[in-house]
């Protein structure tokens, strides 16, 4: 597998480590729990941070609905003071990442 942090000369992908501060209202769900509103505060092609997600369980996959996108899957990597850091099951394509950032203003 190619290291996504080292794009080749013809590679137009954004490195997975590119992080952008955003403020996007989305919905998240773990397992069979109901959908909850959440604020996405940090985004990269490889993952995101949600500022507050009470009762998050690291062992349960997370689903996230970002307005205008298909349902995305992620895993929780860390929980600190109610905030959660997550990794997408599949990294966002550069065009999708850039679209979300532009739409967030």
Automatic annotation (TrEMBL):
Pfam families: PilZ
Domain of life: Bacteria
Membrane-spanning ranges: none
Database matches in InterPro entries: PilZ_domain (IPR009875)
An MF annotation (GO) of this entry: cyclic-di-GMP binding
Chain ranges of the PilZ domain: 16-102
Protein's UniProt name: PilZ domain-containing protein
Species of origin: Novosphingobium resinovorum
